[in-house]
Amino acid sequence: MKMKGNGMRAVMVLALSLLATTVSASFPQCYVKCFAACVVTKQTPVPCAVSCLKQCISIAPTDSLYRCNLDCACSKCSNISTKQNPAVGEVEACVNTCSETCKKH
User: CA geometry: angle at 34 spanning 46 and 61, to 5°?
Assistant: First the structure.
């Protein structure tokens, strides 16, 4: 049985929604792993934080809120982590605040 275009799109939207939920639920794991690997090689927390925020924020680049969330997170959340402490809970809270702020605009 072949799926028509609309049925296939619905399946893709559902799959992407589930993926986005999974990715957002794993922000702490993604960020900690990314940040730890980065500071070992680059030794500089802020550029590592920016790079990891770009990698771990779960909003798709095609989403209209992506740029707002990324800009906000990079400017407000990238100086929280240190080489000794990624402070993932604080970073995640900061990113969530950015997300809420962007949704209001």
Answer: 85
Structure tokens at 1: 């049985």
Residue spans of alpha helices (H) in 1-105: 5-25, 27-42, 45-56, 66-76, 88-104
Give the residue among 10, 5, 97, 22 at the shortest CA–CA distance from 56.
22
Quote the CA–CA distance of 33 and 104 in Å, as a whole number. Answer: 31
For the question of whether the overall pTM of this predicted structure is more than 0.85, the answer is: no
Cα dihedral sign, 14-50-35-32 = negative
Rg of the chain (C-alpha set) = 16
Cβ contact 42:48 at 8 Å: yes
**Under 8 Å between Cβ of 36 and 49:** no
Structure-token pair, residue 52: 């990891």
The SS3 of residue 70 is: helix
pLDDT digits (tens, 9 = 90+) for 15-74: 333 333 333 559 999 999 999 999 999 879 999 999 999 999 988 888 989 999 999 999
What's the pLDDT at 20? 38
